[in-house]
Write a structure and sequence with these properties.
Number of strands: 8
Helix content: 25-40%
CATH class of one domain: Mainly Alpha
Keywords: FAD, Flavoprotein, Membrane, Transmembrane, Transmembrane helix
InterPro entries: Crypto/Photolyase_FAD-like_sf, Crypto/Photolyase_N_sf, Cryptochr/Photolyase_FAD-bd, Cryptochrome/DNA_photolyase_1, DNA_photolyase_N, Rossmann-like_a/b/a_fold
Shape: globular
Distance between the termini: 36 Å
Bound molecules: flavin-adenine dinucleotide
Number of helices: 22
Pfam family, one: DNA_photolyase
Radius of gyration: 26 Å
Structural class: alpha/beta
Order of helices and strands: EEEHEHEHEHEHEHHHHHHHHHHHHHHHHH
CATH architecture of one domain: Orthogonal Bundle
GO molecular function, one term: deoxyribodipyrimidine photo-lyase activity
CATH superfamily of one domain: DNA Cyclobutane Dipyrimidine Photolyase, subunit A, domain 3
GO cellular component, one term: cytoplasm
Length: 646
């Protein structure tokens, strides 16, 4: 058993009776008389390997159909996690009269609200239902210290996103504990959710588990592992699909054969038939807010003086293995991306005050290389649920109502259109198997990418020799955020444009470094930019020189992010290799010594890459034609794309 070192002198070891050998260390509060305010918890957990074997995801995915029911509030409670377990699992439709959650007004004695996204009190149906239906409630966050805040299993978030989530958790904890006057607080445990959560359920005797689902496959896969280990005869599992404007199943209910529309245009038609559900009331943390379960005391029974309480403690960035120095420049994009609902609401309010800007917003007209964020900058807050996408959508509607209809921009380029892209990306990801890879992904063109780690590394580190691209990658590294068209430029450059590396590698880097990293949106966009799927005009290519110049002739953006070029003559700022040696010497940057030569010659390589794309597309066509001759006929490939009933 591994015991994490503690900074506090008085501590107590508590051992969960469990086959997973979980050890939990409670810090005893050094001061304070509040019963729960100081209670718990710097839980630090070591898991010494579980004896329980887990079902693999593919097993879960092979389920025949998705169970789904829709309630009045427009939320869906579908168990698409392990369809083969349906018989034994009781599915709840909380929020509807028939939910069965509060039968005859009886609340759950002990319930757990498992936070992941949804770190907010406004428009949070899951938390609202949990508070209304429970006598006592454990607000729980689980961090896997081996891969904190991973989306793809095992791929830890970079320091900037990790810090953002920690700040959001801290803020939620402050709200819970201060507004409840110490009756509640966030409990943060470290370990694998599939090992910790079932143990906590058991230890507390919880009869209900509330959590918000996410459409992304790896999250659903990990949820399946958790739910596999919970006895659903004893525990009501209440999942909420509020991560997007509409639950994915609502879209699919509108489609033929439950296949996601293959274009945004068709998606828009479906979207327009539905109205975005209104927000639910804010969760108020008042005297009626359910306190922490009394049974939490059982965790310390016999181990502590009962008047002592444990103290909540979220691990620090350093404790999770990050280097705080990585945060030094994180606000340099021009918005202080501080995690949490308060900052999210303040930023949304600030943006919504810009009436004309909101009404006439057209994404392609915003600038990839503006010095300060040229769009709303809300993506990290939306991703982590600090702001509800529905609040965002409805606030936009309110602003639109103030403008003349003829001036309003429209989807796909308007801000409503951006949120619709988000839902569409999620829907594609939700319905497409192997969405994060080329092989066995039925929407992906098979393209014979090169695989050169040195080239990938040069791109990732901003050492390609193209200042526009290197400035983008530097901004990404230092702040976690880059403009949408900067993402376009960098992604095109890595893949079909110049370096001919797989989009999968690029998506991995973005998933690690973006503050708003979202598995579904990220993979969708990488497929798009590499002309792997969704977009096929490979002959339209972003120039790493000309494209940036369109919006930033003087190269201010490059000067900011690559300070060695601060005083460089404008004439050479995008192409420093063309500067005479005297100018290089004068400005203290010798190309080939202080800054790399261009990694490729864009004009020629982009041309030859187009020829490679054409060949790959031709081969794809031939494969489809050959497939059409076999028994299943011409629809083989598209049939495969039919939703997987994961
Ligand atoms: C290669 C690549 C990878 C990307 N990876 C991610 C990612 O991991 N996470 C992420 O949230 N966005 C991603 N995007 C989409 C987009 O670039 C960002 O959402 C946007 O730049 C965030 O800035 P904003 O909040 O100011 O956007 P705004 O323009 O203000 O848009 C408002 C909101 O709409 C959503 N949105 C905007 N653009 C898109 C889009 N194209 N697709 C889906 N949703 C969108 C976001 O939630 C955003 O906050 C990626 C784009 C590319 C080209």
């Amino acid at each position: 058993m591994r015991i994490h070192s503690l900074s506090r002198s008085r501590n107590l070891l508590l051992i969960f009776s469990s086959n997973t050998a979980i050890s939990i260390i409670f810090y005893l509060a050094t001061a304070g008389n509040r019963i729960f305010g100081n209670f718990a918890l710097g839980f630090s957990i070591s898991i010494l390997g579980s004896t329980t074997s887990l079902k693999t995801l593919s097993t879960a995915r092979s389920g025949k159909s998705t169970f789904a029911r829709v309630n009045r509030l427009g939320n869906i409670y579908n168990d698409n996690i392990a369809a083969n377990k349906r018989k034994s699992r009781k599915i709840i439709m909380s929020g509807s009269k028939s939910s069965g959650d509060v039968v005859g007004g009886k609340k759950h004695e002990v319930a757990i609200h498992w936070f992941r996204n949804g770190l907010r009190l406004h428009d949070n149906l899951c938390l609202l239902q949990a508070t209304e239906q429970s006598s006592t409630l454990l607000p729980l966050y689980i961090i896997d210290p081996d891969a904190p805040f991973a989306q793809t299993t095992g791929r830890k978030a970079g320091a900037i996103r990790a810090n953002f989530v920690l700040e959001s958790i801290e803020e939620m904890n402050t709200k819970l504990s201060e507004q409840s006057e110490g009756k509640s607080q966030m409990i943060v445990l470290q370990g694998k959710p599939e090992e910790i959560l079932p143990e906590v359920v058991k230890q507390l005797g919880a009869t209900a588990l509330f959590y918000e689902r996410e459409p992304a496959a790896p999250i659903r896969e990990s949820d399946a592992k958790v739910l596999d280990r919970i006895d659903t005869k004893k525990v009501k599992v209440c999942g909420f699909d509020t991560h997007t404007l509409h639950p994915m199943e609502h879209y699919l209910a509108q489609t033929k054969d439950q296949v996601a529309p293959s274009t945004y245009g068709v998606f828009t038609k479906i979207f327009n038939k539905m109205s975005v559900p209104e927000e639910v009331p804010d969760v108020s943390i008042d005297e009626n807010f359910p306190p922490l379960p009394l049974s939490i005391g059982d965790l310390t029974a016999g181990k502590a003086d009962s008047k002592d309480a444990c103290q909540w403690k979220c691990p620090t960035l350093e404790e999770l293995g990050y280097d705080p120095e990585d945060l030094e420049n994180r606000f340099e994009s021009g918005i202080d991306f501080v995690g949490g609902e308060d900052a999210a609401v303040a930023l949304l309010d600030r943006m919504m005050k810009r009436t004309q800007w909101v009404c006439t917003f057209e994404k392609p007209k915003t600038s990839p290389n503006a010095i300060t964020v040229d769009t709303t900058g809300l993506s990290a807050y939306v991703k982590h649920g600090c702001i509800s996408p529905r609040r965002f959508y409805h606030e936009l509607s309110k602003v639109y109502a103030k403008c003349s209809a003829s001036k309003l921009s429209k989807p796909p380029v308007s801000l409503h259109g951006q949120l619709m892209w988000r839902d569409y990306n999620n829907l594609m990801a939700y319905t497409t198997p192997k969405f994060d890879q080329m092989l066995d992904n039925p929407v992906a063109r098979q393209i014979p990418w090169d695989d050169d780690p040195k080239i990938l590394d040069a791109w990732k580190k901003g050492r390609t020799g193209y200042p526009y691209i290197d400035a983008i990658m530097t901004q990404l590294k230092q702040t976690g955020w880059i403009h949408h068209l900067a993402r376009h430029s960098a992604a095109c450059f890595l893949t079909r444009g110049d370096l001919w590396q797989s989009w999968e590698r690029g998506a991995e880097v973005f998933e690690e470094e973006l503050i708003d990293a979202d598995w579904s949106i990220n993979n969708f966009n990488w497929q798009w930019l590499s002309c792997t799927a969704h977009f096929y005009q490979y002959f339209r290519c972003y120039s790493p020189v000309a494209f940036g110049k369109k919006t930033d002739k003087d190269g201010e953006y490059i000067r900011k992010w690559l300070p060695q070029f601060k005083d460089w003559p404008t004439k050479y700022i995008y192409e420093p290799w063309n500067a005479p040696l005297a100018i290089q010497q004068q400005n203290g940057v010798i190309i080939g010594e202080d800054y790399p030569h261009p990694i490729v010659e864009h004009k020629s390589i982009s041309k030859s890459n187009m020829a490679r794309m054409k060949a790959a597309y031709d081969e794809h066509k031939a494969t489809v034609a050959a497939a059409s001759k076999v028994k299943d006929g011409p629809k083989t490939l598209s049939k495969k794309r039919a939703r997987t009933k994961k």
